[in-house]
Amino acid sequence: MTAEHIHSGASQVDDTDVAQAMAVYDVLNTDEQREVFRTVYRAVAAYRHTSDIDHLKKLADSVEGMVVHETNHPGVREKIRNVPKTARAAGGVVDTAEVIRRLRG
After folding, report:
1. For residue 105, is it within any domain?
2. Whole-structure pTM value
3. Does residue 51 belong to any structural domain of this protein?
């Protein structure tokens, strides 16, 4: 259990945006959750060392992007997880749109 101080303008714990973000977080596997926390803490540490607010702004954009992407593209994370881990011969360069098309099936 942690104590929480809500600053003015911050979302409440039961806010629908917070609930949506938590739903995305809850389906992450342990390694993915650890990576999210590592990313958050790296941004916090960078801010503490430099006092450069851009570290926190970039973190906020990154987290928001993850939540929006995962919410708007259900099932993509599972497809990424299910990509075979075996080595394959290089197939050439493929642009981002083609990668997304292939992931969506």
Report:
1. no
2. 0.62
3. yes
The total number of structural domains that make up the chain:
1
Q: Where are the alpha helices (DSSP H) in 1-105?
A: 16-26, 30-50, 54-72, 76-81, 96-104
User: How far is 87 from 105, CA to CA, in rounded Å?
Assistant: 21
How far apart CA 24 and CA 74 sit, in angstroms, is 10
| Domain presence at residue 40 | yes
Q: What is the pLDDT along the chain (105 residues), one digit of tens a residue?
A: 455 555 556 666 668 989 999 999 999 999 999 999 999 999 999 999 999 999 999 999 999 999 998 888 888 778 777 877 765 555 667 778 877 887 887
Buried b / exposed e over 12-32, threshold 16 CB at 10 Å, is eeeeeeeeebeebbeeeeeee
User: Does 62 map to a domain?
Assistant: yes
Query: What is the domain extent for residue 70?
Result: 16-83
